[in-house]
Write a structure and sequence with these properties.
Layout (H helix, E strand, L loop, with lengths): L24 H11 L5 E4 L13 E2 L9 E2 L3 E4 L13 E9 L13 E5 L11 E4 L4 E3 L2 E4 L9 E2 L10 E3 L7 H9 L5 E4 L4 E6 L3 E2 L11 E2 L1 H12 L5 E6 L3 H9 L5 E5 L10 H7 L3 E5 L3 E2 L5 E5 L2 E6 L3 H20 L8 E5 L3 E3 L4 E11 L2 E6 L7 H7 L2 E5 L3 E3 L4 E6 L7
Parallel strand pairs: 5-6, 13-16, 13-17, 14-15, 17-21, 19-24, 22-25
Antiparallel strand pairs: 1-12, 2-11, 3-10, 4-6, 4-7, 5-9, 8-9, 18-20, 20-21, 22-28, 23-27, 24-25, 24-26, 26-28
Length: 425
Amino acid sequence: MPQFTTRAAPRPHPAHTENPMSVSLAQALDIITEHARPGRVNSLPPAITHGFVAAGDMTAQCDVPESPRCARDGFAIASAQAEKASFFKPVGFAPSHTVLAETANPGSIASGSAARVFTGAPVPEGADCVVPNEDATMRKGKLMVTTPPRPGEHLRAPGSDLSRGTLLLRAGELISPTVMAAAVRSRVQEVDVFERPSTLILALGSELADPEDVVADDTGFPADNPVLLRALLREHGAGTSMYHVVQDTMMDILHELENPEARLVITTGGTGGSERDLAARAAEEAGFSMLFKGVDMRPGHNCFLGERDGTLLFGLPGPPPAVLACWRMLVLPALRLMRGLDEPDKPVPATLAKGYSVPAGPSRIIPCSLELRRSRLMATPLDDPGTPVMQSMMQTGGFIAAPPGITANKGDEIEILMLRPRLFS
């Protein structure tokens, strides 16, 4: 059964050998890993850290609960006084006072008395268990206990949920809503997090129109690439994200690239070989050092990566299917590293619902629709030449990074790089 990963380095295709800066997909990923770095570290209250990545280990700052607490509504008593209780010889307790969850001083109980308590209430001195309401029988104003309770029954001991110093999250892990809640409850004051990378998307093309100013005629094509990329960036945890539609002139492109405030810049279009394809030339003139120009994969073979003062610039082709493939294979790994995530987004196993074949040449990045059938993830390659582009993109749930010269059959086990964020990042 074929097993594919993005790290398998294919042999360069002859069409790219004249370009000394063209790299394999594996080499591109190695370069990205070397140059994509987390941003500065900020300290934030845990209640507003959802989606950030921890820059240091997070530990509980107190026991939870801090003191013994009642786990049920009922009556707090001393269990020893009811150790001989039975249905035929119940033991009576006189209610003394009421203790609420917010009560600061729960008081104490005398011999033969019971305190009325509510869930979360502190335990009165002298009590070591709670008789819950559903087990309580009142007779002539007294609580009648017919079953001997156990010491500690229906009580929460200090630290029974979390003890002080418990590791809540390791550095490099994503802060989830449940971790946030645990941090707040265990009185964590501040959390060190990596700043989310700010991003800028430049859609290059004089034929393009602002996607927020769509008109009902054929004046310019609404720029769909920045809409696609900004949504993907937000979905995968990027910081502020802006986009501009830019004319196909060196002056206009240079103006956008000269002083971008973003740490991650993505251009779409202008990566071909014509005199109007200015993306790479403009990037170099703006001071970006080229890390690679061309990747031995299709779609997206004429993409590039530049770096300047810690800002990464991905130059992507213009066709949306190539943008989506380059996003998943190259930009997303960089974004995860820039967010501070330690673990790569690993592929998931799936079963082919339809076979495919890859000829000799570059690696193929094959979009797939995904469906769960009887607890098995089924992947259907969307590689039919006649499939409309936009319909194929809307159905895409992940990609296969297929090396050249391979044939895979229906029922084969393969690996899928998911497009959407996974539950476990």
